[in-house]
Amino acid sequence: MDAQTVEQVKSIFGNRATTDDFERSFYERDLAPIPDFLVKPLAHTLPDIVVRPQTTEEVACLVKLAKEQKVAVTTRAGGSTVYFNAVCTQNGIILDINGVNGLTAVDAENRVVRVGAGMTWWELERRLEPFGLATCSYPSSAQAATIGGWLVMMGYGIGSLQYGPVMDQVVAAQVVLPDGSNKKLDKTSKPPLTWFAASEGTLGIVMEVELKVRSKPETEWHNVAVFENAGQMQTFIEEAVELKNKPFNLHFSDPGCNSRRQRLGLAGSQSGEAYTVAFDADGSAEETQTARLAFKRCLQAAKGGELGETEGNQEWRHRFYSLVLKREGPSLLGAEICLPILKLADYLAAVAAFGDKQKLKINSYGHIISPQYAMIMTMFNADERDTVGYLQGLALVKKLHDIGARHGGVPYGIGLWNTPYLSRCQTNQELAELKRRKQLLDPHNIMNPGKRYEAPLLLKPPLFAVGMDVLAATRWVYRGGRNQP
């Protein structure tokens, strides 16, 4: 980005545009502590300038300028993923939209709201409360994840079992396209809004979202089912997802994860060596009473026990704190996989066998996101200060993705680091269609380039697979001193 363009942006945005080295450095990473020597050969992550717009008109003006100068634009808000979805790879402009966060309209009668894309889901939930409304679903990272960010990630999370992915709740969105035009898109517009779900910021910048919400539930009910083995847990989940009135949320954990949670004061003593499923229901008093009875039937079918409402309420209060498990770290590595529920027990058995072989404690937890699929996070301790050990850990993440693929699973999110798995996520025909959309809307490739559609050379599947296999094999020679639990 040339100096003249930088100065032009500064003249427009004043102190809301910065080239300060210290401030820009915060935008070079997300939640993933990847060592620089791995990042730098693949991406130029330091933005030339960081801009904090406040209106859609400002964003449209900036994008027009970027198009004219062929400067990369990467949109960032919460930065709450680990795949570099919102980290630039070709320098350019970081567009920080956290300031675009107003609740601009509330239609309580029809239960539709209009909200700035930079607002977090938890802030929206709080803002809706005085109107007697609540969000239909939200991510487990709701305190950091934003409305627009979750939409372009095709968000699944808490509440998705009952209400579907976030795209099912979006009515329309105001989007700045790569040519600088500002359009209101819906499911029938050209381009349709559905193109932007899971686009990860590569097709345009979502500025405002019209979203379906629901009436605030009158009552809640929470309990935790407990099982001796993963097969029983899977049976319980299979029964629960078939209920006519599905629970709002089902969250499951394996014994290793529960032991960690117990040591950190997030779980009671009874769950330490067990498989558990948190069963969360809400609605009218009649609906929650129906849920209590349904819980008992599912429990009986799976031959499980229960930890009670006190434990259920505690787990519900801690629903945003899963990553607190990294306190035993200093960090974590893992794979987030969308997996068929029918393969859940087999997957967990395969992961346990892999962990035993590697002499590594691996833990898993997740949410049920539809009657067919679970979103599962499988993780282990790591330490980025131990360079060799951390590299070996990244190789083991690849092995976890391979186990997931053998059981019908696919990675959740692509960004940069999951591009080696593109062929698992889409067929050749589907990927060709995604590339066609990118070429149609963004022929100069200025919008979040280097992500989503193609792996860079060092992450090409054949080279990546060989490199990761070699690194994994070195664990038999060197196991490090810091990355073991």
UniProtKB/TrEMBL annotation:
Alphabetically sorted, this entry's keywords are: FAD, Flavoprotein, Oxidoreductase, Transit peptide
User: What PROSITE patterns does this protein map onto?
Assistant: FAD_PCMH
Listed cofactors: FAD
Superkingdom of origin? Bacteria
InterPro entries referenced in this protein's UniProt entry, alphabetically: FAD-bd_oxidored_4_C, FAD-bd_PCMH, FAD-bd_PCMH-like_sf, FAD-bd_PCMH_sub2, FAD-linked_Oxase-like_C, Oxid_FAD_bind_N, Vanillyl_alc_oxidase_C-sub2
Q: Which GO terms describe its molecular function?
A: oxidoreductase activity
User: Per the database record, which ranges form the FAD-binding PCMH-type domain?
Assistant: 43-216
Tell me one Pfam family matched here: FAD-oxidase_C
Give the EC class as a word: oxidoreductase
Task: Decide whether keyword Flavoprotein is in the record.
Answer: yes
Q: What does the similarity note say?
A: Belongs to the FAD-binding oxidoreductase/transferase type 4 family.
What protein name does the entry list? D-lactate dehydrogenase (cytochrome)
Organism lineage string = Bacteria, Bacillati, Bacillota, Negativicutes, Selenomonadales
